[in-house]
Amino acid sequence: xxxxxDLAYCEAAIRTGSYSFHAASRLLPGRVRDPALALYAFCRLxxxxxxxxxxKSAAVLSLGERLELIYRGTPRDAPADRAFxxxxxxxxxxxxxxxxxxxxxAWDAMERRYPTLxxxxxxxxxxxxxxxxxxxxxxxxxxxxxxxxxxxxxxAMQLTNIARDxxxxxRAGRLYLPLDWFExxxxxxxxxxxxPRPTPExxxxxxxxxxxxxxxxxxxxxxxxxxxxxxxxxxxxxxYIYAGIAAELGRADYDSITxxxxxxxxxxxxxxxxxxxxxxxxxxxxxxxxxxxxxxxxVAYLVEAAADTKPxxxxxxxxxxxxxxSVLAQLEARERARRDALAxxxxxxx
Length: 350
What we know:
Blueprint: H1 4-17, H2 19-25, H3 30-51, H4 56-72, H5 79-91, H6 96-109, H7 117-138, H8 144-164, H9 166-171, H10 179-185, H11 189-194, H12 200-221, H13 232-251, H14 265-279, H15 300-307, H16 321-349
Helix pairs in contact: 1-2, 1-3, 1-5, 2-13, 3-4, 3-5, 3-6, 3-7, 4-5, 4-6, 4-16, 6-7, 6-16, 7-8, 8-12, 8-13, 8-15, 12-13, 13-14
C-alpha cells in the first residue's frame, strides 16, 4: 500500500501540476484514485525532469535508472518513486507500459521529428496512451477492447496537447506536426520555427489534428462501458475536459501561435457535473460496435502487454528491454559527445 505521506506528496504535486487530471480524479473511487495519483505524480516527475532542464539526455538516463530500481522493488528514497513502486507491486503493472513513457521522453530528448501522422501517433502512444493503459489496469480491467479504447483516449489527448501548443513548442525549437503536412503545404519547417505565425496553412494543420483527436475521442467513449461503473464519471470528465480544449481551439480559428487555448474553472465544474450525470444515468451502458474496432497499429503493443495477465518470467513482465536499451544507448552516446565537446571547448579557452 502507498504510505500516507507519499500519497499526500503525490496529490499536492498533481493539484499544482495538472489541474485537469486532479479535477477528473475527484470523481474516481478511492481504491482507484489513490494509485492513480501516484501514477500521475510519477508521470509528472518524468515529464518535468526532461522538460525543465537543459540536460535532457542525462535526465532521461537518470529516469531509466529510477525505473529499474522501482521494478527491482528497491525504489529511490523519494515519495513519487516509493508510491509508484507500491502501485507496480499491488497491480502487477506490466513493465512495458512505464518503459513506453520513458521511451517517449527519450524521443523528446533526442528532438525527434515525425515524417508522418503515424509517427506522431507512435510518439503519442508512448507519452499518453501508455498512461491510459496503466489507468485501465488500475481499474482492474484487462479486456483488450477496453484497453484499445483507453489508448485511443490517450492519443486523442496528446494530439489535443500538440494542437494547443504549436506556438509554444515552435518558440522552444520543438515541432510535432507531421513533416509531410509541411511538404504538402509548400512550407519549410525550419522557416516556420524561426518565425512561427498563424498562417492559413498552419491553422489548417491544427484543425486537421483537432479533427483527428475528436475522431479518437468518439472511439474512446465506446470503451467506457467496459469500466467499473464507479470509474466512469472520472473518465467521462477527462474526455470532456480535453475535448473542451479542442473546442476552444476551434473558437480561436485554430490559432495556437498567438494564444494558448484553455478552459475555465467554471467549464471544468460543468463537465464534472455532466460526467457524473451521464455515467450514473444507467447501471449498464449499451455496447457500441465501435468498442471492437482494432487498436491503432502504433498502440497495439501496449494493448497486448496490458491484456496479458500472466507475463513471462516475473509478475510484471520483462518489458521491451531491447528497444529501450537501444534508445538509451543513443542518448548516452549523445551525452558523452556533448561532454567531450564541452571539455574540448574548455581546453581551447584556457
